[in-house]
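#onboarding

Welcome to the new folks! Below is a worked example of what a typical request in this channel looks like: someone posts a single protein sequence, and someone else replies with the predicted structure as tokens. Don't worry about understanding the tokens yet, we'll cover that in week two.

Example request:
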Amino acid sequence: MDSTKGSTDSEKLPAKGINREWIITNGLGGYASSTATGMNTRKYHGLLVAAINPPVRRRVMLSSLDEEIQVGSRACQFAAHQYPGALHPQGYRHLQNFSTEPFPEFRYFAEDVSVRKKITMVHGENTTVVRYDISNPSHDTVTFRVLPLVNNRDIHKLTSSGDLRLEQQLHDTGTVLEREGERLYIDSDIPFTPKAYWYYNMEYMTELSRGYPFREDNFNPGYFETEVGRGESSFFIAASTSGISLDMNDVDRIFNHEMRRRNQLTEKQAHKDDLLNRLIRAGDSFIVHRQSTGSKSIIAGYHWYSDWGRDSMISLPGLTLVTGRFDDARSILATFAANCSGGLIPNFFPESPSGEIAYNTVDASLWFIHSLRKYLDYTEDLDFVAGVWDTVESIIDHYCRGTKHDIRMEADGLISQGGQLTWMDIKVRGRELTSRRGKTCEINALWYNALLQASTMGEKLGKDTSAFYEVAELTKENFEGAFWNEDKGCLYDCIPCPEKPGSNEPVCLKDASVRPNQVLAVSLPFTMLPHVSEKSIMQIVKDELLTPYGLRTLSPSDPFYMGIYQGDTESRDTAYHNGTVWPWLLGPYITAYIKVNGRSNRSKDEMRNLLKGIEVHLEEAGIGTVSEVFDGDAPHNPGGTISQAWSVAEILRAYVEDIGSRD
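Example response:
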């Protein structure tokens, strides 16, 4: 059980607990999330963050539930909020224990009264249910009071009291608050008393550290209050964007149903251990329903990312195939195939139904073919592959002939592309920080792999794929000569091209930066380099990029290396792909390392030991999940989102497919 003890060391709890966050999700992109102290430190935190147009248009509806007990004239508050110059109340002083398994649970103790608060969400609904179990062995009566702090705003914005106009209605079991047609229902078996009150200037300290606005006001519409007699008592409060009417039996059924659903996630695995089970449960949170397509998709990360094409295709094998969720895999692939345009699958879908799909990615389509082939390997579902074969042909045809964003195959069989189209795509003040315009090593590794994977699938369908083989041979003939850096014994990262095709601008020197992208030239099923070159690449990557949490995006010996990912947006963006560690790269690294070492049991044991850092991390930052990034410099503090899909997915995939398969 992961816990944060507060009874004997409460002074240290804020610093310890505030940096540990929990999150539960509802399969729609909505979630409930806060810290181990119960104090919100991000604008993204809330007990009900609803996806109005799943999995997007997420809104903070219920910020928190603030509990207190009163024994005679003595009142004890369990909430914690930061205000300018003050932390009040300091409910963490009464927090005996916090755990996340099987549900987020806070256990408070004050005045010889124990209050246990347990939280879940209804899968497939924007509904959060909180159960309270109170033990009062000593007092004739104790007053138990809960004050909901509500909001109704986009997750990226903050509210001031003058901005929020809520219409409030009462009903027999609670209250309804409405803003512009969006309703929040708060229901309970505890009587509700309306009493409007504003909490002003609440501060979210993580937003301050990230260089964003960090103060907002939250509205308190009243309070739930009841008298608790001697003995054991149970109550609940539920918040939802749709009408609800529950009793305690319903609450028990909701918790039990969610428990069964979670347990079923890990039942399909033949070889089980704690790390595997925790990764599978974490992976479940990213698979969501997309309302606009009526199918499944993958959220890239919590709290702020939506479903992105590149992230979805990289994450799909780990989240759905190694876990046996084949129906979800098929639905996700179908979603992106149906929206392919000009040989490109979506980079991301719009927040609004009237918005336009963005196609600014060169690698998502190549990852699509890779994931489709892996889907076929796992399921032998040729009928589905036949149904999306036109998408595969469209991708290869458009890449050969040229398509949007200057994506095209050159005469040497290598793919080149415009700017900001690979996964290293950050731009600051109009300047690409990792300019990769031209030919890049991993895109061409993916291109060759896609050609041969498409060829093998086409043959199973009875298609003539000889043209694919011919292009693949041309690509292979020229790849090593173009990208091999003899001086360093690894690959050039990028071969720049003129910004305008056909212009006479001089081409810059090949980019000799040591980056992790070259690992894909070793890890993919079909590769182009001789074994000795692959071994050399892996040694360079191990020596210069490997950390316990992933691969650095740039060698520390590079003058542009930045080892700390912190500060305002520009500071973080500058470091994002220039030294910052990415856990998702552990997946291809593990696959490649075991491959070049002959898939020996020793190499598998080495890679299993490598994951000990991730096991420790599961108790940090986002509890039970894996962060987006880490500092390049030790001690490699986590950063970015607290829960990132491809971080979880690629570690999970490599753990099952590579480490778990013993010879």
